[in-house]
Design a protein that fits this description.
alpha/beta, Immunoglobulin-like, four-stranded mixed sheet, three-stranded mixed sheet, 29% strand
Length: 131
C-alpha cells in the first residue's frame, strides 16, 4: 500500500475515532429502589384466650425504616390498633381475616400499647427504635 493510501486510512480512522468519542454515553437504567427489611408481627393462634400474650410474650420491637407486616395466624378475624398516635405510620391493621396480612413502613421512633378492637383483652406493646 502506498503512503498516500496509508494517509487516507489514518485520516479516516482518526475521524471515526473522534466521532465515536464525541457521542454521549448510552443512558443507564435507574437503580431500582431497595425494599426495606420486613419484621413480622403475628396474631397468634388462639389469641382471644391468650390476652396479654396474644401477640407474643415480649414487646414487638422493630427498627426505624423497616416494614412491619402483621399476620393473622388465628382462626378468627382481628383488628389491631395503637393506643396512642405516637407511631403515625401504623394506627390500625383494619379487619384481618384468618391468614390475612397488612404491612406498614415504620419511620417514626416510639412506643405504644396495642390491642384488638374486637377482643380488647388482646394487648401488647409495639416499639420502633433506631438500629
Amino acid at each position: 500500500m502506498g503512503s498516500r493510501h496509508l494517509g487516507y486510512a489514518t485520516t479516516a480512522l482518526t475521524i471515526l475515532l473522534l466521532a465515536a468519542c464525541g457521542r454521549d454515553k448510552a443512558p443507564t437504567a435507574p437503580t431500582p429502589p431497595v425494599d426495606p427489611p420486613t419484621a413480622n408481627a403475628y396474631i397468634l393462634a388462639g389469641a382471644v384466650d391468650l390476652g396479654a400474650i396474644a401477640f407474643g410474650d415480649e414487646p414487638i420491637v422493630i427498627y426505624k425504616g423497616e416494614r412491619l407486616r402483621w399476620r393473622n395466624v388465628d382462626t378468627v378475624e382481628h383488628n389491631v390498633v395503637t393506643d396512642t398516635a405516637s407511631l403515625p405510620e401504623f394506627m390500625t391493621t383494619g379487619l384481618l381475616a384468618p391468614g390475612g396480612e397488612r404491612s406498614f413502613i415504620m419511620n417514626t421512633i416510639g412506643t405504644t400499647k396495642i390491642h384488638c378492637t374486637i377482643h380488647p383483652q388482646m394487648t401488647g406493646t409495639l416499639v420502633v427504635q433506631e438500629r
